[in-house]
Amino acid sequence: MSAILDTPVIDQSAPPLQAKREATIVVAGNPNAGKTSLFNSLTGLRQKVANYPGVTVESKMGQWTLSPELPPARLIDLPGLYSLAATSLDEEIARDILLGRGPTSMSADAIVVVVDATNMVRNLYLAMQLIETKQPIIIALTMFDLAERSNLKIDVEKLSDLLGVPVVPVVAKQRRGLEDLAKAVRSTIDRGRATSVVPLADGKDDHERQSKLIKRYALIERIVSDAVDATNEGKHSVSERIDRVVTHKIFGPLVLIVVMLLVFQAIFSWASLPMSLIDNVFSALGDAVRAHLPAGIFTDLLTDGIIAGVGGVLAFLPQILLLFLFISILEDSGYMARAAFLMDRLMRAVGLHGKAFVPLLSSFACAVPGIMATRTIENPKDRIATIMIAPFMSCSARLPVYTLMIAAFFSGRKVLGVISLGAVIILAMYILGIAVAIVVAWILKHTILNAPPPPFVMELPPYRIPDFGNVGHALFSRCSIFLKRAGTVILAISILLWALMAFPRAGSGPSGPDGDKVAQIENSFAGRAGRLIEPAIKPLGFDWKIGIGLIASFAARETIISTLSIVYNVGESPDNKSSLVDALRNAKRTDGSPLWTPLVGMSLMIFFLLACQCMSTVAIVRRETNSWRWPIFMVGYMFVLAYVASFITYQGGHLLGFS
Amino acid sequence: MTLDTIPKDVNARVASVEMNGAHGLRLMEMGLVPGAPVRVVKAAPLGDPIQVCIRNYHLALRRVEAQSIEVTLGE
To answer: Chain B residue closest to A245 (CA)?
Structure first.
């Protein structure tokens, strides 16, 4: 049978590959079609994550050896897309590159279109659009083993004839068909590059577009019914049977809760050992440097600024690794789409998308990976709204602050005789954070981020056993992004904060006993700033010493503990919490009244809950939104909220007679 | 009859998609074109969204969207 479609227009003058030119090949396909597995199998470890110029969507690039005598080709993994009529940022970028409108460095010599053999009709829709643009196309038929097992008999040769492009069945995990794919790509490229991309003739109005779309589907159906012999129609799939439990009216939410608890437990308890290990290594490193270098400003910068700052960042790595391990497994297995399916109705009440649930859940551990996880949300306004409220989820860095305040002012008290007051307060903090997030999300979605709700049209992919190669790749790229991008900004701010506490120098030696340290801090820019802001924070119940803590804790919330330790001169060893508690209880105002009262503690906790005191979050929001506008807005509005809430707490508490 | 009103596990076919603009096109691009067999699998625990089986794969969509998809019952 002859090809239904014309062969591509080819440019014979394009230099053949033998000319040692590096070929560029892009991989495109529907989400969940096995694109990433194929990309990983083709490139192995020779890949890196890069950002598309000017936008925040990542592209993965790797090297693919087409044949031993040629230089390896550049392989670009595009974000998944269903159609060239793009509806999300991810899809727009993929479309532009596929239509030759992307950066010239990404113009392709050939396009490998990944088509899921078990879901051929819908997957071929994108392939058909691309074939119509008459570019050099090769179809990689993935999940071929699954298709064989479910008795789909695919006549690959006939399919290739009917489509007019090479079709190569592959099983990425078992490395089946990869050689054939390389061969097909090579001969396609050797035939020359397309002179130009033929624009899609989809028509101008809805009616024309729809009729074109229907014709395209009719053609695909004809081709598939000619080339595929399907005998398993109507059978309920394994996934559907799993879904009977996982999205069941009662068991579904229960499973979701158990999964959430497991993730939480992992992040809180399993991560604590490597976290303290990293902490210890860095403080040992700092001590070693201090012992071997002459005391002086340079040593201080190295130990207090750089080593402490970098250590503070690395300490978050175990939590981020664990969280992404779980997210990758849940995503790869197909569960994530089910979680969004279960939660969509609740999230919609706030104006958000079901897919916002996972990033928000992650943010209870740490907002940084949570914000990175918002990428799955297609609508940019929904995504920004989710990013803006993620820091209200009470993250693990707030816990040390809560526990210090509770140890100092609320310990030993019971509610209803059995429950400790501390636990109730911590729970209240979590609930308050969620409540504020809901209100803010609602307001944002009805004002500056107002947009018609995008349709919730989401594929529920079949359950699959996660591929640990893919999970490993995903983990590695997440971590390197975190370390590289956020790390540089965090390092810079650590040095800045150190400088604010270290300059101008106090009269005596730079790193003498703790007494000098107190004098140093009082005299430093940070100390002066503390005094400067004292009038502003007095209505919240804070004095200038707490002010220094607030300024220092902009870097990271838990910094306030080490800062208060220095300010109250109780040394810096980690087991001095009790002495810090005593120091707080004994601290007096100038009029002799106690400075720290339960009400001040409460006000401080609420301030820490609501203010965005986390430069890692600021750095990651800058990176994820690709502008300074959103991080500045976030810091600003969260600060105002924190101030107002603390003000109400302290002043209101006073009026009600609390102290 | 629209997709949000038919009972679950009953075979039906898409008659038309009554939604304009990019969103309507997206529904059709996902395979909901006139003549395509479709089956409602279930609703989420809170009643919305719903899960349908179309072209051998599963798709979740909200009732608002399902309302704009006209279907006819039977094979």
So the answer is: B45
Q: What is the CATH number of domain B11-73?
A: 2.30.30.90
Residue A540 lies in a domain: yes
At residue A512, the pLDDT reads 46
H or E, element range at A208: helix A206-227
| A502 in any annotated domain | yes
Place of tokens 């009805």: A446
Say if CB B11 and CB B68 are below 8 A apart.
no
Higher pLDDT, A232 or B43: B43
Residue carrying the six token digits 């994530």: A336
Tell me if A543 sits within 8 A of A651, measured CB to CB: no
- Which residue is it, tokens 């033998």? A18
Q: Indicate the domain borders of chain B.
A: 11-73
Residue A157: CB atoms within 10 Å: 10
Structural domain span for residue A644: 498-655
Who has greater pLDDT, B19 or A197? B19
The DSSP code sequence of A65-104 is -SSTTSPPEEEEEPPP-S-SS--SHHHHHHHHHHTT-S-G
The ipTM, to two decimals, is: 0.95
Higher pLDDT, A635 or A485: A635
**B7 close to A (CB below 8 A):** no
Supply the CATH number for residue A93's domain.
3.40.50.300
Instruction: With H, G, I as helix, E, B as strand and everything else as coil, classify residue A628.
Output: coil
Asked whether residue A250 is domain-assigned, the answer is no
User: In A, which residues are within 8 Å of B47 by CB distance?
Assistant: 345
φ/ψ of residue A73, rounded to 5: -80, 155
